[in-house]
């Protein structure tokens, strides 16, 4: 029977579904950016990733259950409202939000502008800040004593996946930083190749670029 709000990261589906299934009275998703267009804009041509309005499974399920889309665009949070509960602990009770719009300045850079007389408060018992990748979890890194780069990613030699600790390998976002899933797949395969080579002394797993084939030799002829 509580009010749940998520800030940013509009594509975070599990939060929407599970909050509602857990009995939240209201589930809202605030996004500071404007609502995307239904189709590509001229400044977003192919082969760039299409920045368009999408309805994912979480949005669709919430619409079926509540009759509306949980997303609200062009919203900026100005303050968290708090109060002490019965145990004397300060907890979130609401958010102070304002509607915003984006305009380009004289240099062509986007500038955030608050709309006049649009500031209001919303009830909130749980606020989740889903704002993207901020580095790998530090627990394992600290427990194993792994070295990290300035961005907190696990440090490995160039084009290698072994860490500075023997028998510990890293791949994907924890090594290269936030990136596309295709990079995670690629690095997972190459890390497996290096692990295989480490354990067996050699490997037949495909290296970067795939498998290199050669014409077979038969009875002394190629």
Task: Output the keywords.
alpha/beta; 2 domains; single chain; 4-stranded antiparallel beta sheet; 8 strands; 4-stranded parallel beta sheet; FAD/NAD(P)-binding domain
Q: Secondary-structure map with pairings?
A:
Blueprint: E1 3-7, H1 13-21, E2 26-30, H2 57-66, E3 71-72, E4 75-84, E5 90-104, E6 110-114, E7 120-123, E8 126-129, H3 138-144, H4 173-176, H5 181-200
Parallel strand pairs: 1-2, 1-8, 2-3
Antiparallel strand pairs: 4-5, 5-6, 5-7
Helix pairs in contact: 1-2
Helix content: 10-25%
Following the backbone from N to C, one meets helices and strands in this order, namely: EHEHEEEEEEHHH
Q: Which secondary-structure class do the elements indicate? A: alpha/beta
Strand content: 15-25%
The number of strands is 8
CATH topology name of the largest domain: FAD/NAD(P)-binding domain
Low-confidence spans: pLDDT under 50, at least 5 residues? none
Strand order of the largest sheet: 3-2-1-8
- For the record, the count of structural domains works out to 2
Can you walk through the features of this model?
The chain is of the alpha/beta class. It has two domains: 4-128, FAD/NAD(P)-binding domain (3-Layer(bba) Sandwich); 138-200, no CATH class. Helix content is 23%, strand content 23%. The protein has helices at 13-21, 57-66, 138-144, 173-176, 181-200, and strands at residues 3-7, 26-30, 71-72, 75-84, 90-104, 110-114, 120-123, 126-129. The strands form two sheets. Strands 3-2-1-8 form a four-stranded parallel β-sheet, covered by helices on one side. Strands 4, 5, 6 and 7 form a four-stranded antiparallel β-sheet that branches.
